Amino acid sequence: MFQLLLLALSFLESPVFMAxxxxxxxKPVGIVGGHRTPPGRWPWQVxxxxxxxxxxxxxxxxxxxxxxxxxxxxxxxxxxSQDADPALFRVQVGEVYLYKEQDLLNISxxxxxPDFNQFSKRFDVALMQLTASLVTSTHVSQVSLPNNNSTFNxxxxxxxxxxxxxxxxxALQPPYQLYEVKIPIQDNESCKRAYRKKIPDEPQSVAxxxxxxxxxxxxxxxxxxxxxGPLVCLKSNKWVQVxxxxxxxxxxxxxLPSIFSRVQSSLAWIQQHI
Length: 274
Ligand SMILES: *[C@@H]1O[C@H](CO)[C@@H](O)[C@H](O)[C@H]1NC(C)=O
Ligand SMILES: *[C@@H]1O[C@H](CO)[C@@H](O)[C@H](O)[C@H]1NC(C)=O
Ligand SMILES: *[C@@H]1O[C@H](CO)[C@@H](O)[C@H](O)[C@H]1NC(C)=O
Ligand SMILES: *[C@@H]1O[C@H](CO)[C@@H](O)[C@H](O)[C@H]1NC(C)=O
Ligand SMILES: *[C@@H]1O[C@H](CO)[C@@H](O)[C@H](O)[C@H]1NC(C)=O
Known about the structure:
The protein is mostly beta strands. Helices cover about 10% and strands about 30% of the residues. It contains four helices and 14 strands. The chain has helices at about 10-15, 75-80, 190-200, 265-274; strands at about 5, 35, 45-50, 55-70, 70-75, 90, 105-110, 125-130, 160, 180, 210-215, 230-235, 240-250, 260. A hairpin with a 2-residue loop joins strand 12 (about 230-235) and strand 13. The model is unreliable at about 1-5 and about 10-30 (pLDDT under 50). The site of one 2-acetamido-2-deoxy-beta-D-glucopyranose (NAG) has 4 residues, from helix 4.
């Protein structure tokens, strides 16, 4: 009944565009459950693209974040292979709309976390180096990484943004404006318990490990196309990225939280490269 879904995959396989979305205050529409984002609110948010020969265009596959003038953080499962060719990817920065007339940025190097495991989804993080340094503006800037010793829990104010589906089978519609949703971080132990209870005999892929972070509630969370995007929390008046969208079950149609790569678990690896 419950299917474990990589949030990028349906976009990689077939970008389906179905019914249009009506926005209302309380109905679960959004990234799932969110609303449209004004320009400049999440200036580190990027869209990762691959070339679609059928559509003859660079199609959005995943989200990502600017963590330094030359580096993008995303999910390893968005890249898939340790030896992926950087020339197959482009990045859009500084926009809330997808596919506006503009230059996409090139990538010179891709580094997947050495401990990334596509089955367990452990260490689902990757770094992409841009060919040129970004110029910071009100619409383009980097997000802070958390301190090694900070703690985050349900009392923190945390937000997620992305261009993914607004409902399980409903893609974001033109003009493809970024959506955002406020979601709570969930306690590790109750998250582990919830996954064990809901999916008792599934393969190891649904085990929740220390390098993962649970966030989201029924009707509020990421969906297909949001993978790789940042989960940010306000800490001492500064937005810090605590998670990278990794996977979930049924796009928050049930009360299982979604799973993020815990940025703190990969800090040393990130700092070693950027
Ligand atoms: C990106 O790379 C392509 C192919 O090498 C090149 O044609 C294009 O000008 C590059 N774009 C930028 C913004 O550097
Ligand atoms: C946490 O680490 C930061 C630097 O990484 C340091 O400035 C701060 O004092 C530390 N806080 C605690 C409570 O150890
Ligand atoms: C959440 O973390 C804060 C410190 O950041 C702590 O004071 C508070 O007790 C924690 N709350 C819960 C519910 O764990
Ligand atoms: C969850 O586990 C991580 C890693 O062990 C820990 O740093 C964090 O404080 C825990 N947070 C919550 C909300 O359970
Ligand atoms: C963070 O702390 C852990 C031990 O708690 C240590 O192994 C790691 O090197 C530290 N990382 C950074 C970036 O300070």
